[in-house]
Amino acid sequence: MHQSASFKGQIEAFLGFCRVEKGLANNTVESYRLDLKRFSDFAKDASLSATLLGEYLDSLFRAQLSSRSIARHLATLRGFSSFLLQQGLIQTDPTTLLPAPRQWQSLPKYLNSKEVDTLLAAPDRTKPTGLRDRAMLQFLYATGVRVSELCKIQVSDVESSLGFARVMGKGKKQRLIPVGRTALGAIEEYLAQGRPALLKGRRSPYLFVTARGGAMTRQGFWKLLGLHGKQSGIFHNLTPHVLRHSFATHLLEGGADLRSVQTMLGHADISTTQIYTHVMRSRLRTTVDKHHPRA
């Protein structure tokens, strides 16, 4: 396989496969596109081989990319090679002999209960946008959804009488997540007073809307979260994922099992959820100290 019009066509075919057949998010497909563009620029006219891939990974190390970034590049190449193998465009998968770079496990950042309470109380409930922001923050902390999932929630997805919400996750996989009474109350207040004032007679299937009547965007939510974070005295590293981590961490601290948290977070693999095992270990330590006669 050479870098030529056919090679570029194979990349486009792979990206189309990821988008249509696997149902991956646009952001994920775009990341694959950038990774493969970097690889094709490096490969030039060389044939795809384990030697070439090894040299490419070495170049990423020399460029001082983090092990996590290099692992992502390798995952992209594995997916691409597997696709080419399935299509009969290569006879063997050259990525099978490549070791994954070691990734140091970093503990997820999360807020303590007091910080969460302060943040959730920050929006101004006298304004339609404040009612919306409060409902979004309450829903995010109550469910642990991704910000992309949060922005796509529709009014019909929330079953207030049942206490559940339907969420469309990665790979277009739908899951049901329980929603607490506090979050449902914030949503009902927003639906009664905030959303109609924002829409001004316009129609939208989306639950969380902007003053222009469109769905809230990821970028828009990042911006308003930063604003409320500053109002709450939380100035550093406050992202939607921090609230997602806070949701998972507080559940485990309260005694939830890892499998239940995996289901609610929408993780396909339990190994992804295991970044939260630091909470499990701390609870084990507390349990031993409290109950073991020789602790």
Which helices and strands, and how do they pair?
Layout: H1 5-21, H2 26-43, H3 50-62, H4 67-86, H5 113-120, H6 128-143, H7 147-152, E1 158-159, E2 164-168, E3 174-178, H8 181-199, H9 218-231, H10 240-253, H11 258-265, H12 270-273, H13 277-291
Antiparallel strand pairs: 1-2, 2-3
Structure, explained:
The chain is built from 13 helices and 3 strands. With 295 residues, it is mostly helical. It has a 3-stranded antiparallel beta sheet. The longest helix has 20 residues. The radius of gyration is 23 Å and the shape is globular. The relative contact order is 0.09.
Keywords:
globular; mainly alpha; about 60% helix; 3-stranded antiparallel β-sheet; about 300 residues
Describe the structure concisely.
This protein is mostly helical and 295 residues long.
pLDDT average, as an integer? 85
Helix/strand-derived category reads mainly alpha
Low-confidence stretches: none
DSSP strand tally: 3
Order of neighbouring strands in the sheet with most strands? 1-2-3
Enumerate how many helices there are, as a single number: 13
Radius of gyration: 23 Å
| Terminal CA distance | 63 Å
Which percent band covers the strand fraction?
under 5%
Assembly classification: single chain
> Which sequence of SSEs, written as H and E, runs from N to C?
HHHHHHHEEEHHHHHH
Q: Helix proportion of residues, in percent?
A: 55-70%
Largest sheet: 3 strands, antiparallel
Silhouette: globular
